[in-house]
Amino acid sequence: MPDASIGIFDSGVGGLTVARAIIDQLPHESITYVADTARQPYGPKRIAEVRAYALEVMDHLVEHGVKMLVIACNSASAAVPRDARERYDVPVVEVIQPATRRAVRATRTGRVGVIATRATIESMAYHDAFTAAPDVQLTGVAAPRLVEYVERGETMSGELIEVLGEYLEPIRAAGCDTLILGCTHYPLLTGAISYVVGDGVTLVSSAEETAKDVYRILHDRDLAAGGEATPRHRFRATGDSLLFARLGRRFLGPEIDVVEVAPVGGTTSNGHSAAPVSGLTSDDTGFPRPGSDAERRIGKEPT
Q1: Which residue of the set 69, 73, 237, 258 is catalytic?
Q2: Are 31 and 19 spatial neighbours (Cβ–Cβ below 8 Å)?
């Protein structure tokens, strides 16, 4: 089991912020990352729908032998952790509690803001998480359009700054000195968000804190890979694998060598079957055989 990979999933590229932190803090660990791009974004969807999608993706990861599940998506973290912990025999880590703990430590005034998807805000998951810190005054704002900017790789534009100004006005009006980026996509907009709120506001990303939880659990449960282990990272997308590879490499780096097609979710975003891709040679799992010409082609297109 220690040699198995850590399973991470998100609706798109946002969870790569968590993957990056895990790779940096645990360089000998292998990860298997699934992006449910065929059904993104999760944020505007009903909680029940998000729960169903998330469990389907996690079923897929567990079937492929991961030793831990990391829900690298705030919308799914608001919807499914309890179900997941009852359903699977492997540890489950989510991103809301780690961010909450960090914000409580960081705030000087007790005024904390959180921006997140509509599903996360309406779930009241962050408000529930802060019940253990009654002195904290929480201001929550839904910022659904930010995911769109990240998913198309737009991190600097006048339009983005204008949209952020509107979303962040209630945070500034409340005098928040700490702001939780309550969607794993949002750390990819840290520069723009910091520009709008100013240097006096501490930004809290759940990625680093989540990676610390992963480290602790692997150590305490004797699940850590050996110090001589050579990691193998695998990336899968339920939608367009080439598009995910191009954008993912921009945000994560060279660790994204190839992107496989994950047979989850039925159809890709352009309406084609998610499992079979024309011209690919697959093994009985529905994925291209590791090292095959077909696998090497995926994600290797010029950027």
Answers
A1: 73
A2: yes
